[in-house]
Amino acid sequence: MERSEHGNRLDTNSDYLFQLLCFLKLHTYTRVQVSIDICGVDYPSRKRRFEVIYNLLSTRYNSRIRVQISADEVTRISPVVSLFPSAGRWEREVWDMFGVSSINHPDLRRISTDYGFEGHPLRKDLPLSGYVEVRYDDPEKRVVSEPIEMTQEFRYFDFASPWEQRSDG
Amino acid sequence: MFLRAIARPLMAGVKQTTGIVGLDVVPNAREVLISLYSKTLKEIQAVPPDEGYRKAVESFTKHRLTVCREEEDWEAIEKRLGCGQVEELIEEARDELKLIEKMIEWDPWGVPDDYECEVIENDAPVPKHVPLHRPGPLPEEFYSTLEKLQLNSKEAPPAVTSGESKAV
Questions:
Q1: Which residues in chain A have their CB less than 8 angstroms from residue B92's CB?
Q2: What is the pLDDT of residue A132?
């Protein structure tokens, strides 16, 4: 539990996530009825590499709280859709982007990636331009996806400071 | 302004609207609240007596129940409790009942005494452009200053801009 000027953050483990959020939603002194966002973070150096973050808002008490839970690739977290109906899309997004799935989720589909996409984009091990590219193929008269071909190598600029390397201004 | 001051005791009888979308006016709010709070106090007996949850729920439920029993009028209840409208209080009471039922089912009691929850105090200063979300002021102060401003504005225009100097 962290209490700071930046905002309150609460870490929990996965067994009690649903119970904790239910308590936060229903108890008279902590009425967090709104879930603002559910997102994930990938820390590849950790053992449980993902962290799913629930941003919640209490309109009654005008306060926000953030609940964080750590998960690895095979952990399945409980869906909070029954508590916060808006969480449906956020959980689908977390599943699509990171691969953290939910037990008994009513509707777990991909939401932001292409229909046949393999892989989970926001993980740190998927490269920035992905593995396949799509182009319209005239003989076949449809869009085909092929392994990516980049004419230029990926350029990585490492500016020490914006003031030092002013070659062309 | 004068009309409002004269009509105010008459207006306290019927509530037109809660002002909140989707929340209907409950005409017999006081009875509903009393029954909900008595039910809450009965249900909370199933929780072990030492638990902080039981103490917290009992304390505020008893306070709200005594206020509801003493005051006849929904407006007086709202003003005295300072917790928003009676319809919101009804919602909170219903949610608390649901929560008690679930807590009894899940049974989280019995944490050993030496379990320490790590509390990190992060006092890093926040940059000025970042908005801080702070809870709002207490409703009771708001009501009392509003009353005083309205009474004073009938006689003379307010000499000070801040309402806090008038509140006791």
A1: 28, 31
A2: 78
SS (HEC) of chain A: CEEECCCEEEEECHHHHHHHHHHHHHCCCCCCCEEEEEEEEECCCCCCCEEEEEEEEECCCCEEEEEEEEECCCCEECCCCCCCCCHHHHHHHHHHHHCCEECCCCCCCCCCCCCCCCCCCCCCCCCCCCCEEEEEECCCCEEEEEECCCCCCCCCCCCCCCCCCCCCC
Q: What is the pTM of this model?
A: 0.71
Classify residue B158 by its DSSP letter.
-
pLDDT exceeds 70 at position B98 = yes
Interface contact flag, A6 B126, Cβ < 8 Å: yes
Instruction: Give yes or no for A64 touching B (CB within 8 A).
Output: yes
Chosen for mutation from A9, A16, A27, A55 (greatest number of chain B CBs closer than 10 Å) is A27
CA of B135 vs chain A CAs: smallest distance (Å): 5
